[in-house]
């Protein structure tokens, strides 16, 4: 075995980390109608990078104990480890659901799930890279890190996105039983996906190379992309419906329903003179539409959303009636 060049191996892991972080930023950017605050997204990514692996490592004794009890390493790899890892990652998303006003729907869950999953994958790459670097040759270690970046990291993102989507669907129901049911279903699907991947790797022939993983994950990546597109289309329909109702009620001017639901129109400069105010108005109107949609879904249990709708309408009408009322550091969206 050739000696390991630590600089080359470190560079490989840095490139892999930059790639995964770039995917997170890309997913965040594509979520065009209601982008999550980037500090919050970064916090979720860091949860996956530090906290979730720490929790999983802390539970390592439990994992080993269960495997020894049942005398099955297969059970540990396919069932126990996926449950613990998905719970550790999902806890980061759950904290956003509980403590942030910015988590509204399944799209948000998909974005945060991708962030926490790829953050977790970065740390796994580091740990496995160090381990394989001491056990294998230079080329094998680099190939191992690259393979995990392209495939296993994707599994973490897909699984955590499923957990996030389940929490997002639960958020929109407004009913405790329904919220718990959706969250549990998301976790079950995530564990099944994660465990199925581990089982496939254990059963995969060494001659399969990258063909077998590609055949498994290719369709799953396609499902992820199609689900994201459908979620964005759903957000567009919510904006069209809810803002059209506000226009019909006389709360908003007619251009609001013609501009805000369409990304290309809302980024143009011809519907409002101030760029700063265009950004704030777009976000306020988007939040108003989503809060109205949540209110309709939750019914009488959504008193808080009803009060926020009143506050948002008043804020929007103040801005539209008195252009130039926003300061450079306006934080009305986060209050």
- C-alpha geometry: elongated
What is the SS-derived class?
A: mainly alpha
Helix content: over 70%
Q: Could you give the count of β-strands?
A: 0
Indicate the low-confidence ranges by residue numbers. 327-335
Could you give the order of the helices and strands?
A: HHHHHHHHHHHH
Q: Can you count the helices?
A: 12
Structural features, described:
- The chain has 335 residues and is mainly alpha-helical.
- The protein folds into two domains: 6-203, no CATH class; 237-334, no CATH class.
- The protein contains twelve helices and no strands.
- The protein has helices at 6-30, 38-58, 60-70, 73-99, 106-135, 138-173, 176-203, 211-248, 254-259, 263-266, 275-298, 303-321.
- The longest helix has 38 residues, at 211-248.
- The N and C termini lie far apart (59 Å).
Quick overview:
By secondary structure, the chain is mostly helical.
Features:
335 residues, mainly alpha, 2 domains, 12 helices, 0% strand, disordered C terminus
Helix and strand arrangement:
Layout: H1 6-30, H2 38-58, H3 60-70, H4 73-99, H5 106-135, H6 138-173, H7 176-203, H8 211-248, H9 254-259, H10 263-266, H11 275-298, H12 303-321
């Amino acid at each position: 075995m050739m000696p390991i060049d630590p600089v080359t191996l470190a560079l490989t892991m840095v490139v892999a980390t930059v790639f995964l972080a770039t995917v997170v930023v890309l997913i965040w950017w594509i979520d065009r109608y209601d982008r999550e605050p980037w500090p919050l997204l970064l916090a979720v990514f860091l949860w996956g990078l530090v906290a979730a692996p720490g929790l999983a490592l802390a539970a390592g004794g439990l994992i080993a104990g269960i495997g020894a009890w049942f005398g099955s390493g297969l059970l540990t790899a396919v069932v126990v480890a996926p449950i613990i890892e998905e719970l550790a990652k999902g806890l980061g998303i759950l904290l956003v659901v509980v403590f942030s006003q910015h988590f509204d729907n399944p799209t948000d869950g998909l974005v945060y799930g991708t962030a926490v999953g790829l953050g977790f994958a970065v740390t796994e790459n580091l740990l496995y890279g160090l381990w394989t670097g001491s056990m294998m040759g230079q080329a094998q270690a680099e190939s191992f890190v690259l393979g995990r970046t392209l495939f296993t990291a994707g599994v973490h993102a897909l699984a955590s996105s499923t957990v996030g989507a389940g929490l997002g669907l639960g958020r929109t129901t407004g009913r405790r039983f329904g919220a718990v049911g959706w969250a549990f279903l998301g976790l079950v699907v995530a564990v099944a996906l994660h465990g199925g991947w581990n089982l496939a790797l254990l059963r995969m022939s060494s001659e399969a190379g990258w063909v077998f993983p590609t055949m498994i994950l290719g369709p799953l990546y396609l499902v992820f992309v199609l689900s994201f597109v459908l979620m964005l289309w759903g957000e567009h329909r919510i904006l069209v419906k809810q803002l059209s109702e506000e226009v019909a009620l006389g709360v908003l001017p007619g251009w609001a329903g013609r501009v805000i639901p369409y990304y290309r129109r809302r980024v143009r400069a011809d519907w409002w003179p101030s760029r700063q105010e265009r950004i704030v108005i777009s976000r306020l109107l988007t939040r108003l539409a989503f809060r109205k949609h949540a209110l309709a879904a939750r019914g009488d249990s959504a008193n808080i959303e009803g009060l926020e709708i009143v506050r948002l309408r008043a804020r929007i009408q103040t801005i539209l009636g008195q252009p130039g009322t926003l300061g450079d550091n306006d934080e009305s969206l986060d209050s």
